Amino acid sequence: MNAFEKFAMRLTRSRKRRKTISHVLVGTVIFFAVVLGSVISLLTAPVDARSNSFNKDETERLGAVQANIEYRNGIPMIDSAEATGIYPWPLNGVVTCKYGWRVLCGENDFHGGLDISTGENDPIIAIADGVVERIRIDKKSYGLYVLIKHDDGFYTLCAHLAKTYVKEGDRVKQGEKIALEGGEPGVDPYPGRSTGRHLHFEIRQTANSNSRIDPLLFLNK
Ligand SMILES: [Zn+2]
To answer: How far away, in angstroms, is 78 Cα from ligand 1 center?
Structure first.
């Protein structure tokens, strides 16, 4: 006999009614637990998950762009746009591989960032104000990388770095030197999956890699 049945015993002697009362009580408790749980999870959701948005004009512009993109398995099927944004380039080099399906870059897979190269260990800058969210070494792909959470509501990731000048939690300013270009196997430390010196640059809507967008939508001409 569970607690609800014991309580029901006080109300009636009928076994059948006791069962019914007990079931109604259990149902009521579950209902309120679910409602309370939803309210609590809403109230305690991370602040950045609720307020993580681009400024209004940027949201509208990107919305218009994204509305015309066909998605397959959550991956945008687009030819990379030309630079149409307002942010400075993280590295002044040549684009060696755009964002999108990179049949042309020698591999038949999806490239979630923009490759920019000078062939040197040149400085890489933060394209906007923000806070360094993560610095890691990913030997299989990104090598040494930095993920920054920007005040404007998006994230940038710089990969295959030879060296970083920042640490996690640091505030960075737009234009501030954050790292050096790397990625030359056998020469630069932590190249990751890279065949030559370049910056792999991503823009993400969240910290998660499934939210990547074409960086050329953000960078100026
Ligand atoms: Zn790349």
So the answer is: 16
